[in-house]
Inverse folding.
């Protein structure tokens, strides 16, 4: 087998993992929406991110010992994990509260805007933004108008909160981009999930009243959101992005919005109006346009 064939095989495997990641994350919006029928948003996040951290422990324990000694306990890994965890807490918290007041489909499409927001926020760090990124951003913004803004020029509280969460998801990408090359990515992920869990549970203790019965009733969405969406999908993402081109990875992962809408339709019987469908299509096209070339940001 030639080297080229091996590369093609690895590329196909990587992109398959990314497709699976997009499916899992898309259906996670359905699980998050279902969980809100039984339990508060911050308690839901607190438990699911704790489960996500636990699900990554085997990867931390059973790996090369040299890697553990060189990076696992470095100060930078802990700093990065704590910062990333705070950002995830803001992103996941805003998104989860927003899902209470909007549909899984809307939440999926609006969240996907973080892919465009990453290079735009990079302007503050003197990154170059290419023309197609601006074109994609304007297309996605127009799509957001049709998807979420009413004829009275108002946006629902749920869509507004999810839009705010997209900004923090974009910040999270930038934070991980800074720390991942210099730290132990597995330990960093565990730390960020634990930080998010502690902050979420602390907020739930103050704002929500959570009972064991509520946890039991929401157990399936919690397990899916914790083990599948956090543990499995994040692992697939890391494995998938090892060989896939960054632009290809971003486009594939943006498909989570389609799976969110499909899952919302099949499982939750959510229906989108023709105006909302047009807006969702425009947003998806905008995301894809912004990723056509090799990479969006150049240092």
């Amino acid at each position: 087998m030639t080297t080229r064939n091996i590369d093609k095989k690895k590329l196909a495997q990587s992109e398959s993992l990314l497709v699976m990641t997009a499916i899992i994350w898309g259906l996670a919006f359905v699980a998050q929406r279902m969980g809100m029928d039984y339990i508060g948003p911050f308690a839901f996040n607190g438990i699911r991110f704790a489960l996500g951290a636990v699900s990554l422990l085997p990867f931390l324990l059973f790996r090369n010992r040299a890697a553990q000694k060189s990076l696992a306990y470095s100060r930078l890994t802990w700093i990065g994990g704590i910062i990333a965890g705070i950002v995830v807490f803001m992103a996941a918290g805003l998104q989860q509260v927003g899902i209470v007041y909007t549909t899984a489909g809307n939440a999926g499409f609006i969240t996907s805007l973080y892919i465009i927001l990453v290079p735009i926020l990079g302007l503050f760090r003197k990154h170059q933004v290419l023309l197609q990124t601006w074109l994609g951003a304007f297309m996605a913004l127009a799509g957001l108008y049709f998807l979420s803004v009413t004829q009275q020029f108002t946006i629902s509280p749920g869509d507004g909160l999810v839009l705010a969460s997209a900004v923090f998801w974009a910040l999270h990408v930038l934070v991980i981009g800074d720390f991942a090359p210099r730290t132990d990515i597995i330990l960093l992920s565990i730390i960020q999930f634990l930080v998010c869990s502690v902050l979420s549970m602390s907020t739930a203790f103050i704002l929500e009243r959570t009972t064991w019965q509520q946890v039991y009733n929401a157990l399936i969405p919690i397990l899916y959101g914790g083990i599948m969406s956090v543990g499995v999908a994040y692992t697939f993402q890391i494995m998938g992005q090892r060989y896939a081109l960054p632009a290809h990875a971003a486009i594939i992962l943006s498909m989570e919005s389609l799976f969110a809408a499909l899952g919302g339709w099949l499982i939750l019987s959510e229906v989108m109006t023709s105006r909302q469908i047009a807006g969702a299509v425009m947003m998806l096209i905008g995301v894809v346009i912004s990723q056509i070339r090799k990479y969006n940001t150049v240092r």
